[in-house]
Design brief:
Immunoglobulin-like, Rossmann fold, 6-stranded mixed beta sheet, 53 strands, about 40% strand, globular
Length: about 725
């Protein structure tokens, strides 16, 4: 036994390790990608570390590790990788010397924007701007009426050619991969209008109508392409010694707050986390989401949950038309006009020209014209990056009145509820919150206490006495602490918490007509404000769609306001006859989307629809489309494609074309299943009676049955 144990042991071999760098001679402010690889012939890798001298830069527990070393400053550095195996043996790689000089282009106006997503590589859809689907028609209009035209060749915007993997000047309809209107045009146009110096570098890896599994790590088709394209872009910029700010743009993030599986949210989170793993972005790089929708219930709640849950979502843009999936989806591609035309915003709750947040950097306050002042007096702030200012705080008290005179100057009135003494000033924009600037408020006020209510929308933006208005905002504890709401100085008739955040407020009789201030006050005397236009008399229904185009045997979807007292919805069809809609109701979880069922015998063609409420009738143009024939059209198989009884699976398809009454049955292996419809999917609960093993899921409507495979485990 002793001989056996003493003479047959094998010495543990140290692992093999190597390190490469994307560049070794760069200018200050550059980003460098360090790639460490390790293997072990007689065991496994338990730890892989990358060091700058003796300083640990980062580590992983896998055999390959990419570390993005950002904003490297002037100096000479020696970097190494160290691998440790499962028995504790270790080895350090050969060192790499990196020289960082002060020269080169290290200005703050260089950006690398990585455009990904499931929609923005599709062709143009300018319908929501009223120009139809013809890209050429819209380009002709833009070239003649918008100066400079967004379809110009951009002198300071480069796009990475996916074939040659080299930079070339960005030319919409020539090399933008979409051959028309898309987010890349908007980003480029805004960049050149915003900055007179610097260069914008674009990579586009997106493909319309693709399932998000194409971005699955590590071998999903579009994830692999992203890794190649973005990795090449970073290498080219590092080799050229160019420093830059990275922004990740994602068009069409699909999510539904009512989806308990959070399928798309989890997938999207994984995509951006895997980008960090592969060195395609740093953990703190900004992520912009556009066209984020959930077919389409509780969009605002879903987006807020996502941004709150993911620290990398530093800024968020939901832009475009509120409404059905296609309107919200397509309008994300007309973002290049934001700031020039009015676009409906689900967040803001009105058709206004939204600021474009992509290039917003953290604001800074360089000076104030006075170092102290009393409540009610004004202060002039001088600084930088005062774009899309959302708040100015004195300590924790938000200023009620402020004017952004320019990107470098703000005039602000010290709020009445600011505490006395030291109350540092901060400015918040989509780029972040500024560092505090010292300021002293004179007086004896002890200041308010508790959370501050902050409002960001009013829906509708105008209302009459007796009408309910949703003022969106948060945080929840501040809203719960509100004890008084006044509009134009008049106490509201009533107010209550809204299920998705903010308050429902009923305008009281006697409230002055015109643009008024809504002021909500908490028990701790904190105040939050928002503007509302008060109008006379009852308000008629308003829809925010340019056109209403339902199919026979489906629903009108009116997205707007003043629908709470609707008594009838009547179609005057192409034959001149009237057809009364039935099943009038709000979409579940929404107080802005009103539905009315179109009778199947309604003739197709152009007509009008009249919606009548207590304020009177409102008539809108509409076009009734023929109900499509045929069995349900499936986009995909079941996801997941196996599961136990009682679990759920989802199948994507053209279910938006059929009212719930039209999808008659869903069976799993011949057993009738319970199901619910989303915007373009059906979610199915596997019935207890379903047989084990490989089965067919059958979806039946009046025109037939479509099937897909599933395994009951």
């Amino acid at each position: 036994m002793n001989a056996l144990s003493g003479n047959s042991s094998t010495t543990n071999q140290s692992p093999n390790v190597s390190l490469t760098s994307s560049a070794t001679n760069v200018t200050a402010g550059s980003n460098i990608t360090l790639t460490a690889s390790a293997s072990d012939t007689d065991g496994t890798i338990s730890l892989l570390e990358i060091y700058n001298g003796s300083t640990l830069l980062g580590s992983a527990t896998t055999g390959t590790y990419n570390y993005l070393w950002q904003n490297v400053q002037t100096g000479n550095y020696t970097v190494t990788a160290k691998a440790t195996d499962n028995l504790g043996a270790s080895r350090t790689s050969a060192p790499i010397a990196i020289n960082v000089t002060a020269g080169g282009n290290s200005g703050g106006n260089n950006y690398l924007i990585n455009i990904g997503g499931q929609s923005n590589a599709e062709g143009a859809n300018a319908t929501s701007l009223g120009y139809g689907d013809n890209v050429g028609v819209f380009k002709t209009y833009a070239d003649a009426n918008i100066s400079p035209s967004p379809f110009r060749t951009y002198s300071r915007v480069k796009i990475l050619n996916e074939t040659t993997l080299e930079w070339e000047a960005f030319q919409p309809t020539v090399n933008d991969r979409a051959n028309g209107v898309n987010a890349a045009i908007g980003i480029a146009d805004e960049f050149e209008r915003r900055y007179s110096t610097g260069t914008l570098y674009l990579t586009v890896v997106a493909q319309g109508a693709q399932n998000i599994v194409e971005w699955d790590y590590p071998s999903g088709r579009l994830y692999t392409r992203t890794k190649t394209v973005v990795g090449r872009a970073r290498t080219l910029l590092a080799q050229a010694g160019i420093s830059y700010t990275t922004i990740n743009y994602w068009d069409q993030g699909e999510a539904n707050v009512n989806d308990t599986t959070q399928y798309y949210l989890d997938k999207l989170t994984a995509v951006f986390n895997n980008y960090v793993t592969d060195g395609l972005r740093a953990a703190n790089d900004r992520v912009i989401l556009a066209g984020f929708h959930g077919y389409l219930q509780n969009v605002e709640q879903a987006q807020n949950q996502y941004v709150t849950a993911n620290s990398f979502a530093k800024a968020f843009a939901l832009t475009g038309l509120a409404g059905n999936a296609d309107n919200l989806h397509f309008s994300a591609r007309v973002q290049y006009l934001i700031g020039r035309v009015k676009v409906w915003s689900e967040i803001i709750g009105s058709a206004i020209a939204l600021p474009f947040p992509y290039f917003s950097q953290v604001p800074s306050i360089a000076s104030t014209n006075v170092s102290s002042g009393a409540a009610g007096s004004t202060v002039v702030l001088t600084g930088t990056n005062f774009y899309s200012v959302s708040s100015v705080l004195f300590g924790t008290a938000p200023a009620i009145a402020y004017t952004v005179n320019s990107p470098t100057q703000i005039t602000v009135t010290i709020p009445a509820n600011a505490g006395s003494g030291s109350q540092p000033i901060t400015v918040t924009t989509p780029g972040g919150r500024s560092a505090a600037r010292a300021f002293s408020v004179s007086g004896t006020s002890t200041g308010p206490t508790g959370p501050i209510p902050i409002f960001n929308s009013a829906l509708p933006s105008s209302a009459a006495a007796g009408q309910s208005v949703r003022f969106g905002g948060g945080p929840g504890d501040a809203m719960a602490a509100v004890t008084s709401v006044k509009i134009g100085g008049v106490e509201a008739q009533s107010f209550s918490l809204h299920q998705e955040g903010g308050l429902n407020v009923v305008v009281a009789n006697g409230t002055p007509v015109g643009l008024q201030q809504m002021v909500a006050t908490t028990a701790g005397n904190q105040t939050g404000t928002y503007q509302l236009t008060v109008i006379e008399g009852g308000a008629k229904p308003v829809t925010n769609y340019n056109g209403l185009n339902p199919e026979q045997y489906s629903d009108f979807v009116f997205n707007g306001y003043n629908y709470d007292t609707v008594t009838s919805v009547v179609i005057t069809a192409s034959d001149g006859l009237k057809y009364t809609c039935t099943n009038l109701r709000f979409e579940a979880g929404s107080d802005t989307k009103f539905l009315a069922f179109v009778p199947r015998n309604t003739p197709t063609g152009a007509g009008t629809v009249t919606v009548t409420n207590s304020g009177g009738p409102a008539t809108f143009d509409c076009t009734i489309k023929a109900a499509p024939a045929g069995a349900p059209q499936l986009f995909s198989g079941a996801q997941p494609n196996s599961g136990a009884r009682g679990t759920t699976t989802r199948i994507s398809g053209y279910f938006t074309r059929y009212n719930q009454l039209a999808l008659e049955t869903v069976k799993v292996g011949g057993a009738v299943a319970q199901w619910t419809l989303g915007g373009n999917y059906v979610e199915i609960t596997i019935p207890q009676a379903a047989p084990s093993g490989a089965v067919k899921i059958g979806l039946t409507n009046p025109d037939g049955t479509s099937e897909t495979d599933f395994t009951v485990v």
